[in-house]
Design a protein that fits this description.
283 residues; alpha/beta; 6-stranded parallel sheet; 8 strands; 11% strand
Length: 283
């Protein structure tokens, strides 16, 4: 009467996730689901090395940016069934979490790193735009990284969104004025054909990517759009002793930090101490 089980869903493909979701909710009657923060995809040309190197020959698929599949049908089914998407996954053993001698080195922020990758993928991939009634929760990573990500998204939008890109459009360069200044330098390097061609013939056009707006998929046209696509849509599971929760709850951030304790873990020798530790942050 106090607790509910959580369905752990496999997500290697959207259809697999949908099948398990419908079974968990419609047959087993579960109300809460959890997915991994990412799916390990073996890089095809390195597949023969998988038995020897494991996930070191994989890349992370975070369901949004550059995903091998369109997960929109899964998000849509979650929304129609009325379940939020909670995610839990770590980063130990990958990239910067590979110490062979120090547990703490590998443990610090590795859950947050996985949640960070998932959240920015869902926002920049337009998932929170296309499914405005679907909420997400990232578990066990705390909430401080959410504050940092919100600010980073806004700062990058100011430079990489369309208004920011317009300010640094190479077509705004006065090529004649630049060449006139270079002539004054009297250094032969400034007369290299490649450089002059870049200034006078517009070779920069063919070097630019077809899609230059990193925020096109999420349809963000202001910093407030970024906040609305992120802040109300994500919840952050915090341990009882995580002071970052207080930072997330303070204005102007107002992120949704929630209590999520690993009460049975080895680092909780006395279970009765967990709730007082969480309340100490309120005090």
């Amino acid at each position: 009467d106090r607790m509910t089980p959580v369905a752990m869903l496999p997500t290697a493909t959207p259809q697999e996730a949908i099948d398990e979701l419908e079974y968990a909710v419609n047959v087993l009657g579960m109300k809460a689901i959890m997915i991994d923060s990412s799916v390990d995809r073996v890089v095809p040309k390195w597949a023969h090395l998988y038995d020897e190197l494991g996930t070191r020959v994989c890349r992370w698929d975070t369901y949004g940016i550059d995903s091998e599949y369109d997960y929109d049908p899964f998000w849509a089914r979650c929304a129609s069934l009325g379940v939020a998407v909670t995610a839990h996954g770590g980063s130990r053993g990958t990239t910067l979490f590979q110490s062979v001698s120090n547990f703490t080195y590998n443990h610090i922020e590795h859950f947050a790193a996985a949640g960070h990758a998932l959240a920015r993928s869902l926002v920049l991939g337009g998932v929170t735009r296309r499914f405005p009634d679907l909420n997400f929760a990232c578990l066990e990573g705390g909430a401080a990284w959410g504050v940092v990500l919100l600010h980073s998204l806004i700062e990058h939008w100011e430079v990489r969104g369309l208004p920011g890109l317009a300010r640094v459009d190479p077509h705004n360069i006065d090529a004649g004025a630049v060449i006139a200044q270079l002539e004054k330098v009297r250094d032969p390097v400034w007369k290299e054909p490649a450089l002059l061609s870049l200034l006078t013939e517009g070779d920069g056009d063919r070097m630019a990517p077809a899609q230059v707006d990193d925020f096109a998929a999420c349809g963000a046209y202001s910093s407030n759009d970024i906040k609305e696509l992120f802040a109300p849509r994500f919840w952050f599971g915090c341990e009882a002793d995580d002071p970052g929760a207080a930072w997330a709850l303070k204005p102007p951030h107002r992120l949704s930090a929630m209590f999520g304790s690993d009460i049975g873990h080895f680092d909780v020798p006395e279970m009765l101490s967990v709730l007082p530790a969480a309340w100490s942050l309120v005090e």
